[in-house]
Amino acid sequence: MLATFLLLLLSSLSSPSPAHAVPPRPPVRCGGGGVGCVLSNAYGAWSSDRADCPVSAVAYPASEQEVVAAVARASAAGTRVKVVSGFAHTIPKLACPGGGTGNSSTLLISTARLAGVEVDAAAQTVTADAGAPLRAVIDAAEARGLSLPAAPYWEGVSVAGLVATGSHGSSWWGRGGAVHDYVVALRLVVPAGEADGWARVLALKPGDDLFPAALVSLGLLGVVSKITLSLEPSFKRNITYEYRDDTTLQDDFAAHAARHEFADITWYPSQHTAVYRVDDRAPPDAHGDGANDFIGFQSTSIAVSAGIRALESSLERARSVRGKCAMAAAEIAAKRLVGSGLKNDGGLLFTGYPVVGRQGNMQTSGSCARSPPADILSACPWDPRFRGLFFYESTAFFSPPARFRDFLLDVKRLRDAAGAEKLCGVDAYNGLLVRFVKASAAHLGQSEDSVVVDFNYYRASDPAAPRLGQDVWEEVEQLAFVKHGARPHWAKNRLVAFAGVRGKYPRWGMFAAAKRQLDPRGLFDSPWSDEVVSGKEVEKSDGCALDGRCVCSEDRHCSPGHGYYCRPGLVFTEARVCRYSVSQNQ
């Protein structure tokens, strides 16, 4: 089994070049004549359900004037509106404008054609249209001798989308790792009355009352048309990954973040291993022309991605914990061999640490997102068209940082109670990625310096199917969001993570007041976004805990027919999880 996985993994490291890869599919697809349109995200499934979002009308503005016209038409007709970029990597169904009926009262505005970028070298700023790809913004800045200090690790996002959902990199230095904290101006198109032509444009900057609400807006206030970001003189990055035992991780993480500007840590709990990213800026004339091409974001052979998914699914059916642990060990060994995708001078191969390269080539990656149309040989490994990887992504913000220490110790206790092998499932992906984000002025940003934990794990193809080790990851989820009060990332997570979310943001009331002021008729609301921001638990039904729509309180919320019953957590006994048992009485 391990030999098979290693063969697949090594094949993925020698996949065809992006010139032979198929780009991600567009999120909006329509039938003949532009009718019968549906919206889906890049993974082919949302966190709230797995159904595409039907929409009756789609607008593709190419200028701010056309955005105003689209919002005005919707405002005049009382039509529900949502906005989507050309990427759609948000996991919650925030961009779906209606209740899933596809009637004439919904409009989807796509920013895929609204993609201009303009750099002001004297002011050290870049102004980008809402749909401009992050990679285009970074490249435009670098071409003028400037760098964007912060970026999310995945580059396949639009500038407005990443700002609106609070996307981030990692840093407690300077302004921090969240991109919205580098916004110095934005323009927002909002509904208006008939006297104002049904829509108006707000030009907002720091100091304006509405600016903190407009930064991380979740698409609930209107349509962002332009964003201006502050830049810095171009610099380089110097990166080394250090593999250590995880014994002192709970005592080391804060000092690591204080010592290195772009620090992060990847924790593989089943392997008792923590990988410390030693990442600092270097002067522009430092030797090195390396690049960051994270292997998880490279174009991967479609056959390899499908093979890995088929292997993992077979291990799930066989309840093979040993097989999952073999996958985890092989994954970590492969990443260590290739520097996790870092490449030395010339950006071709990893030959050793440190890897030094320009900020624009090191701060983010996602080569599979910019593959040109060509022969269908490889693609992003999660592309739903090819039955590749399919997973959940949970992301939690802990503040103050001491809460993360308590959480980490609880996960170690859970490892001891359940057995380290029960945690192999997450290590077969990317382990637990630990990053650092500073306090923000955004109402829906982080109110204090925070530690962010992000982890991926197997999602069953059948929403009614239980998963191997399901109880462990449900307990980890509840340890984070319930016991330790972590806040969910707005663009990720299963639906259960958003329970009580309004109470976790001290300035939620100020955001809600801005929402009432700018969109009093609720045109930018929808039942789907309400599920996320209301923080209310959905009505429970049979099997609702299996896909993360509820926390179980009865056996029927799990899968008793498959031997999964609702039980207390092993460490957090107030948690309720779906645990496998050979008998209902155990």
TrEMBL record:
It catalyses: L-gulono-1,4-lactone + O2 = L-ascorbate + H2O2 + H(+). Keywords: Ascorbate biosynthesis, Oxidoreductase, Signal. Its EC number is 1.1.3.8. One of its GO terms (cellular component) is membrane. Its cofactor is FAD. GO terms for biological process: L-ascorbic acid biosynthetic process. Residues 51-234 form the FAD-binding PCMH-type domain. Pathway: Cofactor biosynthesis; L-ascorbate biosynthesis. Belongs to the oxygen-dependent FAD-linked oxidoreductase family. This is L-gulonolactone oxidase. It comes from Eragrostis curvula.
